[in-house]
Amino acid sequence: MLIKTPSDRRTNSGVWNGWQRLFIAVFFLAGVLVFQGCGARQKVSSPPQATEIRLDNPVNQVIIKIDLPVMDPAKSTTLVFFALPNGNSIEWTEGKKMVAGDDWHYDIQHIGAQTRYLRQVMKDQNLVTVYLANRLKSWPAWKRQTPNGPAEIRRIVDSVTGMFTAYQPSVVLNSHSGGSFIFGYIDAVKTIPDIVERICFIDSDYGYEDSMHTGKLVQWLSASEKHHLNVLAYNDSVVIYNGKPLVSPTGGTWYRSKLMQQRLSNSFRFEHSADTAFSRFISPDKRIVFLLKENPEGKIYHTEQVARNGFIHTLLSGTKYEKKAGYSYWGNRVYDAFISDK
Fold first, then answer.
1. How far is the C-alpha of 280 from the C-alpha of 182, rounded, in Å?
2. CA 264 to CA 55: how far, in whole Å?
3. Between the chain's N and C termini, which has fewer beta carbons within 10 Å?
4. What is the phi/psi pair of residue 96, to 5°?
5. Which is it for strands 76-83 and 170-175: parallel, antiparallel or unpaired?
6. Which residue did the predictor score with more confidence, 180 or 324?
7. When comparing pLDDT for 165 and 342, which is higher?
8. Is 3-338 in CATH node 2.60.120.330?
9. What are phi and psi of 60, to 5 degrees?
10. Alpha carbons 272 and 283: distance in angstroms, whole number
């Protein structure tokens, strides 16, 4: 289902802004959700396909795609906001079965297939994945060019969450490389709302700043046992690309993740374990997890972290589903059977 917002037109109050257009789409989606919640699910004899809602806002250059199952009001609802990696499209991020001539990007993330796998595991939940993109294909660039970028990011999250008010959703902020979106949201709020139950960085916490983010994360993690933080990163500091270091000494996710963990260790206890594959820092209650991939060969593991069940792990880590789901992080892809043909 493709929703196109109205073209620019003049009203008595001037040009419609992007969020007025978004609210038109919100009302349309609300009708879809109400219909699904009023018995549509019982009328489907075969496993239903997810409904897709696309919100394309040319004013603020934001593109949103919502992948939702047939909503069951008897289930709890989780909204996963997934900020796209820099340079990627929503279609690449969703993924599909590869055929001759396809761009290789279709086979490196498979958030669509990982979402479908998760729905089979989390059967007691309505799992909704919200793909967040922009026309610049870069959240850092978008924030630099957008007046009050963090406030706009918060408005995006609040507006989409508002569509699902009747389902009393919990929110997950997730990202692969697109962590600038999450930090923009954190920058925009005085305190991280209780409705946000999980924050996940898949090689995406480049923008972490101790002075701006640690206090809010500590306050949020301390506020509820339902709040989880998951950080996946690899040692990018040893990677040489085209004859030059891939990242600056303090700019990569290896450095930023270790810095975040060190700062959080002032408030929370971590159990540390290490081997040739990973350095792990995990709180005793498993609500705070840092999995840092060692990299003695200096390889680029950016996409591997999400492809090897990374999205699945950030959603299931520390939950009742983790040991029953039949997957392992950095293991073989468990979602291949759920990859769509198109």
1. 23
2. 37
3. C
4. -165, 170
5. parallel
6. 180
7. 165
8. no
9. -100, 10
10. 9
Count of CB atoms situated within 10 Å of the CB of 40: 14
> Hey, what are 225's tokens?
């046992």
Q: How far is CA 298 from CA 258, 290, 330, in A?
A: 18, 20, 17
Task: List beta partners, residue 240.
Answer: 245
Q: Which amino acid is at 48?
A: P
Burial 274-287 (b: 16+ CB within 10 A, else e): eeeebbebbbeeeb
Sign of CA dihedral 337, 333, 63, 175: positive
How large is the average pLDDT for residues 190-200? Answer: 98
251-305 pLDDT, tens digit each: 999 999 999 999 999 999 999 999 999 999 999 999 999 999 999 999 999 999 9
Q: Which amino acid is at 227?
A: H
Query: What is the reported pTM?
Result: 0.87
Domain extent listing, the chain? 3-338
- Residue 13 CB neighbour total at 10 angstroms: 8
CA–CA distance, 115 with 53 (Å, rounded to integer)? 16
As a whole number, mean pLDDT of residues 152-171 equals: 96
Q: Could you identify the residue written with the tokens 């929503």?
A: 90
Long-range contacts of 95-99 (CB under 8 A, 24+ apart): 95/339, 95/340, 96/339, 96/340, 96/341, 96/342, 97/339, 97/340, 97/341, 97/342
- Structure token pair of residue 74: 């008897």
The rounded Cα 11 to chain-centroid distance in angstroms is: 36
